[in-house]
Model the fold of this input.
Amino acid sequence: MTDTETEAEQVDRARRVAARVRLATWFFFGVCFALLPFGLLMTDLRSSPAPFREFLERGELFAISAILGAGAIGESLAGAKDYLVKVKSALGYVFRGFCALTAFALNTALYVRIADLPKLEVGLHADTIVADSWALFGVTLVTSSILVWGASR
Done:
């Protein structure tokens, strides 16, 4: 803090620091622990690369993404009070929430759909399932990060 820093600047700086801490906490506890099954599979990769690929083909990354998205939506709702003060901020909040809910719904629907597929059909569409799960994981990670960041600002 400097002598020329106003009270509003101090509050803004404190909010940015709080936002970084909240995002880092969410990333470590939410994302890293959600990806723990991948880490456990990687230790098994020395024997055979099949388990990791099968994990992706079964759509498990969709389930992990859905859980991450749901957690971020909860974080966002916990910090919603500040967004609802201004209409412009509220519209952005609603849009980001809609994007996160859409990613959550897609992840959940695709996981349920893949879980119902016979093993033969999963094998026929394995490359598509793996590619889609990685793509939706990326979308979920971005939208969730934005929601968590915004909830703490």
Q: What stands out?
A: Residues 69 and 104 are 6 Å apart (CA to CA). The chain has seven helices and no strands. The chain has a mean pLDDT of 78. Residues 7-151 form one domain.
